[in-house]
Amino acid sequence: MKVLQSEAELREIIHRPQQSVWDKATDRIDAKARRFIELSPFFLLATSSDDGTCDVSPRGDPPGSVLVLDEHTLAFGDRKGNRRLDCLCNILERRHVGMLFVIPGITETLRINGQARILAAAPYMTQLAVRNVVPPIAVEVHVEELFVHCTRAFVRSALWKTSSWPGKERFRGPRHPEPRAGREGGKGGAG
């Protein structure tokens, strides 16, 4: 076994992609990306803290609940959830975020990397309302990189083929894993 330590070692095994793979990235929300965001009811939000602790949080609301404010900026409301605030506290420490937008049945995803900020009383808060509930805060993301990600993961996993789903009867694990000591109220454990 060899632990790889550098990109050069990694590139000996996995060669560089074609230039077109790099060229598809942009820093603008064009019409196609806007449509993808508007149709997506679900995205994953990735953040990290100053100490390197990473977090990925699923976010879901009806399609159209993420606002495209301009060609470089989008915003979404933060809904009442478990109140752990992992992603939000990470944004306060390190503003860089990653987002992966998903549309059910579509094998492409939209990836966005950018800088986020958390806002209270933003002028567009009422536009972020879902079922007449205005969120208490909004997260605004300035897009630095945006591209459509290839379909291979969804195709290989057969994620959208209901016949491949395991079904609830096959998943009989505990609702929550065993808690780890030292986690209450802050960083330092599972989460």
From TrEMBL:
Domain annotation Pyridoxamine 5'-phosphate oxidase N-terminal: ranges: 30-131
Stored SUPFAM superfamilies: FMN-binding split barrel
Biased composition (Basic and acidic residues): 167-191
Domain of life: Bacteria
Region annotation (Disordered) ranges: 166-191
Entries under InterPro entries matching the protein: Pyridox_Oxase_FMN-dep (IPR024029), Pyridox_Oxase_N (IPR011576), Split_barrel_FMN-bd (IPR012349)
Pfam entry (one): PNPOx_N
The protein, known as: Pyridoxamine 5'-phosphate oxidase family protein
Organism: Spongiactinospora rosea
